[in-house]
Amino acid sequence: MMKRVQSLRPYLIGTASACVVLALGLSREVHAVASAIVTVVNTSANPVPVSAVDDRTRQAFGQRVFPSVHGSATIVVPAGKRFVLTGVTGFNNGDGSISDLEIDLTTNGSVNATRIPFAPTASATFLRFLQNYNVSMVADPGTTVYFFIDDSNANDFAGVNIDVHGYWTSAS
User: Which end of the chain has fewer CB atoms within 10 angstroms, the N or the C?
Assistant: First the structure.
């Protein structure tokens, strides 16, 4: 029996030591000292970054735009706001010659663009769909977001419907 206790002795000492270290590490005095070391200063020259996590729900945006091969559709971003574009979907009832949607906008003063392909048609008389496409683009305040349609048939006057989804966020 004594040999068994002696064989467990290193484990008992190790367990006891771990308990002492945890007790000291989790004590209020140690937390008070650690929290006194951390200082956050929020100045205009070096602001602490914050995020408005409820912008997506409080300032949600959805609009249908109607670009064509002959002209663009636009959304104007108000001054003091940024437009966060999160998704597009749509359809075309033309002759099946539409290839893609192009979105152009200005982010941090630079033009940014993306092209999104339309799905192939099942026949020449079938609607052509732009499947729900997730986008992550941000437009600057006071700028215009453009929606263009690329079509191999310049005489295609069929309607194109694009549903734009996103939200507004403060520019400051």
Answer: N
